[in-house]
Amino acid sequence: MGRIILTGDRPTGKLHLGHYVGSLRNRVLLQNEGNYDRMFVFIADVQALTDNADNPEKVRQNIIEVALDYLSCGLDPEKVTLFIQSQVPQLHEMTQFFSNLVTVQRLQRNPTVKTEMALRGFHNGETQDDNQRGLPVGFFTYPISQAADICFCKATTVPVGEDQEPMIEQCREIVRSFNSIYKCDVLVEPEILLPSNMACRRLPGTDGKAKMSKSLGNCIYLSEDPKEMEKKVKGMFTDPGHLRVEDPGKIEGNTVFTYLDAFCEDGDFANFWPEYQNLEELKDHYRRGGLGDMKCKKFLIQVLHDRLEPIRARRHAYEQDIAGVYDILRKGSEAACEVAAQTLHEMKDAMKINYFDDAALIAEQAAKYKL
């Protein structure tokens, strides 16, 4: 069995820097290294509909935004299978089978589900106030759907942010249950692949909050207008105690330095701030005092421009052929369907519900009822 990567994103808006450093940048590196036999990257529109069922147009419009972000970041459809979740119907059948292997109590313990419920204002039926709404079953069970997304291609590796670790563990539990119950080795337990740079595992919002989120309005998008990006960086949360330039400053919890940890390379200093050789020298100066926040922010702006300008340029090129982008997604979805159909066939064989292909069952039943 080969080494296979599966990962994806919800199409609820354009992708931001948190997506980029948390997963996208690493996907491109993995694609180009060629150490995996196959790589699947999908747009999770079914998952997005679990909390946007009343606004499907939002999901529909953002399919192309996510696809453009994928391609502009460097994902190559010649090397990666790019597909849309809803266009692979076998995933929904697999989800149904997996749902019989997971208890309500286990889903309730999933910390990622709890966090996402709170973020969206859902209640679980036990407590409710005027600002909460009922929890959709589809949203509650999306860890099961996600397990199907991973298992259809027998993914061995899932590159995601650390907030997804509970989801991967739940998938592994489902795989173990299926293989144990049906006495087979059809499904594969995936391993999580986290960014090696700790700052990339959960990039904070520009306001310093732990999560960068479209709904919180604290994102910098990959396709952000350069002037708007500069405005957002200049308004970034830093050290609230660093009131004067001469004051010593704190690096910990300082959003500007977290972003520099995620994006800055030593070569950036030679290009943009030769007064320092590397980021550690800059940090030491900030800690001692005598270095203003705005100088650090202007340096970060230059670094981000350097990283984002090629992405913006590629995006603009793909925007001139939107029909071609949809064709890439169509072909990728067809390829994913072929893989999913084979896995689903193997699952049904193991479950012994492949009735019309089971010659022994038909012969047995015929003999049972033969006069």
How does this structure look, described?
- By secondary structure, the chain is mainly α.
- The chain folds into 2 domains: 4-203 and 322-362, HUPs (Rossmann fold, 3-Layer(aba) Sandwich); 226-317, Tyrosyl-Transfer RNA Synthetase (Orthogonal Bundle).
- The chain is 55% helix and 7% strand.
- It is built from 17 helices and 7 strands.
- The protein has helices at residues 17-33, 45-49, 56-73, 90-99, 104-109, 111-120, 137-140, 142-151, 165-181, 198-201, 226-234, 255-263, 266-272, 279-288, 293-319, 322-351, 359-369, and strands spanning 4-9, 38-43, 81-84, 122-123, 133-134, 157-159, 191-193.
- It has a 3-stranded parallel beta sheet with strand order 1-2-3.
- Strand 1 (4-9), helix 1 (17-33) and strand 2 (38-43) form a beta-alpha-beta unit.
- Helix 3 (56-73) packs across helix 15, helix 4 (90-99) packs across helix 16 and helix 8 (142-151) packs across helix 9 (165-181).
- The longest helix is centred in the last third of the chain and has 30 residues, at 322-351.
- The radius of gyration is 24 Å and the shape is elongated.
